[in-house]
Amino acid sequence: MSIALESKVRVRFAPSPTGTLHVGSARTALFNYLYARHCGGVFVLRVDDTDAARSEDRHEEAILEDLRWLGLDWDEGPDVGGPCGPYRQSERGAGYEAAAGELLASGAAYSCFCPEERLVELRAAAHAEGRTPRYDRRCLGLPAAEVARRRAAGEPAALRFQVPAGDIVVEDLIRGAVVVGRTPSATSSSSARTGRPRTTSPRSSTTATWPSRT
Fold first, then answer.
1. Which of 17, 79, 112, 199 sits CB 3.0–4.6 Å from 60 for a disulfide?
2. What is the C-alpha to C-alpha distance for residues 33 and 83, in angstroms, rounded to an integer?
3. What is the helix, strand, coil percentage profile of the chain, to 5?
4. How far apart are CA 138 and CA 151, in angstroms?
5. Which helix (H) or strand (E) holds 63?
6. Is pLDDT above 50 for 203?
C-alpha cells in the first residue's frame, strides 16, 4: 500500500482542554508552527476534547490565549474555521460513526462488549506470564443477531480492528524499515465505548521491532 503525500505541508497541534497548556505541549506547537511557516505550509489547531468528563471551555480558552501570547497563530482551527472542520473532536462524531459503520459492514472490524475489568485482568495475566498483552478475540465470534440486539439495547461497545496475520513494514524517514509483527489472533481497539472517538494503544495486540539508532 502506498500513501500519496500532498505537496503542501500540513501540520497540526491538538491540545486537550483538560487543564492549562504544558510547557512540553508549547514546545510541540512551536516546532509545528515554525516548520509550517518555513515550508509555506498550513498550521492547524485541533482541540482534542474527547475526555468529556475533564474537558472544559475555560481550559480551551486559556490554551488559545497562551498560544497567542507565545506569538503563534494558526491557519485553521475552532475559532478561525477552515476547509477541514469542525476542529473539535467532539463535533466530528457523525463522521466517526459513518466510518465505523463502514468498517463493521466490510468485516474489517467487530464490536467488543468486554467490560474494562475483564481487559484489565487479561493484561495483568499476560504481564504476570511475561507475555505481550493481546486481546483474545472473545467477541469476534458473537452471532450477528446478538451483536445487533446488544447494540440496540445501548450496551457499551468498543470497535476492534480485525487485524490479519502477517507483518507490516513501514518505511520511516528517520528509522528506515519499521517492522510490526502480528499474530493471527491480534486485534486492536480504536473506538470509544462512550460513542466519543478514543484510541487505545495497539500495543495490546501488536509488537513493534525498531531498528537501533546509529
1. 17
2. 19
3. 35, 20, 50
4. 16
5. helix 57-69
6. no
